[in-house]
Amino acid sequence: LFDWLVFLYERWRGIDEEAVYVSAMVGMMELLLSGCTTTTDHLYLFPRGKEKLIDLEIEAAQKLGIRFHPTRGSMSLSREEGGLPPPDVVQTEEEILADSERLISHYHDPSFGAMVRIALAPCSPFSVTRELMEATAQLARDNGVLLHTHLAETLDEERFCQEKLGLRPVEYLEEVGWLEEDVWLAHLVHLGPEDIRRLGEARVGMAHCPSSNMLLGSGLAPVRELLAAGVKVGLAVDGSASNDHSNLIREARQAMLVARVRDGAEAMPARTALRLASWGGAQVLHREEEIGSLEPGKCADLALFDVSGLEHSGAADPVAALLHCATQYADTVMVNGEILVRGGRLVNESLYDLVARHRQLAARLVRG
Fold this sequence. Notes:
By secondary structure, the protein is α/β, with parallel strands linked by helices. The chain has helices at about 1-10, 15-35, 55-65, 95-105, 130-145, 155-165, 170-175, 195-200, 210-215, 225-230, 250-265, 270-285, 320-325, 355-365; strands at about 40-45, 65-75, 120, 145-150, 185, 205-210, 230-235, 300-305, 330-335, 340, 345. The longest helix has 17 residues, at about 15-35. The model has no long low-confidence stretch (mean pLDDT about 95).
């Protein structure tokens, strides 16, 4: 993981406002088409002079109509301070905390059915100082917003924490005041039984990223054990550098399959994987009373899938067929009572014009 990140940081130095806006639009378009109605993003890299990138992500989400939980990510340790990124993509702790306060003040909506809520999200234990982890937690709790970070993704991270901090990742999390119910964590691959017990007792949330974990060779997360311990588990597609699709229904299939590879054929039925993709994600974001299931009084967020086609022919169980067969996209998607996808296409057809520009921006970033 560390070598991969060091390589990408050099490319990501070229990220600008247009790249963030267009990428956010295209990524969320794909999520919508796959039946996703609520998403979050962990943007933690801010090239010098480009501090208001999350505002552009929020603008994109509002234009699309998707429910959005952006997280104000951060990195404060450059390679000169023992971190991995170059100095021109990290920020001072003062800059990070000030912008976190600004975003909460401008955008966070705690009301029922809110379309935008902010969370605070230092990138990882090896990307920020202990002081920033603690200060971020205090700021989040003072303002009633959630916390997020990456944890226990690879053996690189475990070695770093033990060598630099003298603790395993979960032990460090507890020491800096992050082992609480208002926290959700990405990956959680490399865990021992005691780690799982602690995470479950704290009722933390997990963003399970099976495609990313396989593509990067990180390992297979112990999802069955985490669920049994009391951890709230939702599904995540991670980012384009570590997955290359933003398709929630495909991610649910991957979650089902990797659980069975790890723990046997009975480890995760299709309905369990679909539950993680819906109600599980709502739980992680502390919104299970508003979204995540079809119940009277909840928000009108839903996805309809057509299982009458060739790829589903002969399926005895139409629900299981969503994951057992070659489902790609939803037929209809509604968010907050508004139909955004109809007949497998975005209702706003003009949005597809962004794809060509996205290709150009991606090619420019690769060239450096």
